[in-house]
């Protein structure tokens, strides 16, 4: 589901996360912090292939665009798990530079 074009406008990108946090624990932290904005369809925490630890980023996909926009406006530059996070609309892989 991580690259599905049906998610455009509903998937947010979160940077600045705690890299030391266990990826499964981080998924739970993200769910707890973002579910108040709407139904979450998916949480993806990319991991380092060698260490298995998180890379400090994540993607959260909501059921609708309004929830994603609300999460961006309310969570940008907020503190989560001791770190200041940055939240923006995720861009499709082909549009990244």
In short:
Helix content is 24%, strand content 25%.
The total domain count is 1
CATH class annotation: Alpha Beta
Biggest sheet: strands side by side, in what order? 2-3-1-6
Assign the CATH superfamily: RRM (RNA recognition motif) domain
Q: How far apart are the termini?
A: 22 Å
Total E-strand runs:
6
Shape: globular
Specify the CATH architecture: 2-Layer Sandwich
* Strand residues, percent: 15-25%
Describe the structure.
- There is one protein chain.
- With 97 residues, this protein is an alpha+beta fold.
- It has a single domain, classed as Alpha-Beta Plaits, CATH 3.30.70.330.
- It contains two helices and six strands.
- It has a four-stranded antiparallel beta sheet with strand order 2-3-1-6, covered by helices on one side. The protein has a two-stranded antiparallel ribbon with strand order 4-5.
- A hairpin with a 2-residue loop joins strand 4 (79-80) and strand 5.
- It is globular.
- The two termini are 22 Å apart.
- The mean pLDDT is 89.
